[in-house]
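Re: weekly structure request thread

Next one in the queue (143 aa):
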Amino acid sequence: MPVKQISVFLENKCGRLASVTRALGSRDINIRAFSIADTTDFGILRLIVNRPEEAYQALRDEGFTVSITDVIAVRIPDRPGGLADVLELMQEAGVNIEYMYAFVEKVSRDALAVFRVENVDAALRLMREKGIKVLSGEEVYNL
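Done, posted below.
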């Protein structure tokens, strides 16, 4: 049950981020989580939105370089060491994390972490075996 993440390759220029968010907002697409990785000249904006397929098409129509990637969203207790517990399980199982970002859910006391891993199926299997709540795409899109 991976979650669809939108990745947008952006020039590091004034107004580019506003253009992306306006393109989505004008189509009533809501951003649920995001992260930005940047260099001096370019950046990658990663987004979880409520309607990923429509967001992908909207951004392509606006001329952005965009892709869709499968990631997993995991519910983690929002307490000191909660993230470390999950990361250590992944380390012990040999699940390599390419990147991650997190946000705090509005309606619970948990944090949600989004992971991009080399092997999504192995990571999902591990989380189920260890009793860690993995959210479906629909659960994340409807936050």
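The first helix runs from residue 16 to 25. The mean pLDDT is 91.
Next request, please.
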